[in-house]
Amino acid sequence: MKNRESKTINYLSGNIKRRHFLKGTAASTASLMLGGTFKDMAEERSSPSSFDIMREVRKYRKINAHEHVHAVNDPSPLIDMADRLGMDKLVVSLPVSAGVATPDEVRKCNDVVAKAMMKYPDRIMGLMFLNPQYGKESLEEIKRCIDLGMVGLKVYNQVKINDPLFYPIIEKFIDLKMVILMHAHCAIGAASMRTKYGNVQPNASNPDDFVEAAERYPEAIFQYAHTGGGGDWEYACKAMKKYPNIYVDTSGSNNEGGMIDYVLRYLGEDRLLFGTDGSYYQGVGNILDSALSERQLKKIFFENFNNILRRSGKNVN
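RE: above sequence
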């Protein structure tokens, strides 16, 4: 309770908690999107004070650990969004989400990421994409992308993370001391029956797959993608609780109330990474809406992923 009470803000004639303010005010989302403040709203209500939500947003340094560039788009809109929401760095990738993902397609995706890195070297960090079905080509592509300055791996649903085809790649990234961000999904169901209930991507890695990979490779650094993407994220947290080498990012558009606090309860403050995956305002707002201390906010927004980068000497100063 002390943490929550220390986070109250003066609004109108009384004190209300920041999280209640954000939930109870329809203008909060609009203010974020417009980059404005609550000054006018407060004046309209004859309030003696106002709350500048953008000041709160920009208060914390941020590394966005899960974002994407696209082959047909200029990455400059990403930078505009990052500037608005106070993101120091964007960690981006371009996976093939459907189809075979041949070695040629994989290289083209990584070339798009490399171009974005070159255009904004101080803001964009790249994750390479691979298809483990092509083992020899994947190892060659790893070397090429490392030479281009990429800092980790993003993989989609071509191969599950616990598939033996993945082993040589995991072992290589253990040597590199770099993160493996894996697309994930956890459908509603029960344990092994989960893929039979609502999983539209039956080959996507689920929490049990992550657990098996983490048990086999405790030295690896795994990032479970978009906890805020829907599905049974509560089960995911419980399943992965005992595996400290599995981190989760907060990205996704289905950010349920209390999600951050729930994840924190099971995984702790050191294993939660800020990410957006295209849902920028939800990604920032859901964290600010949680019952986190200042120290925890700094960890989740910036320090936790920076500590992962530090292992390979790629950390942000």
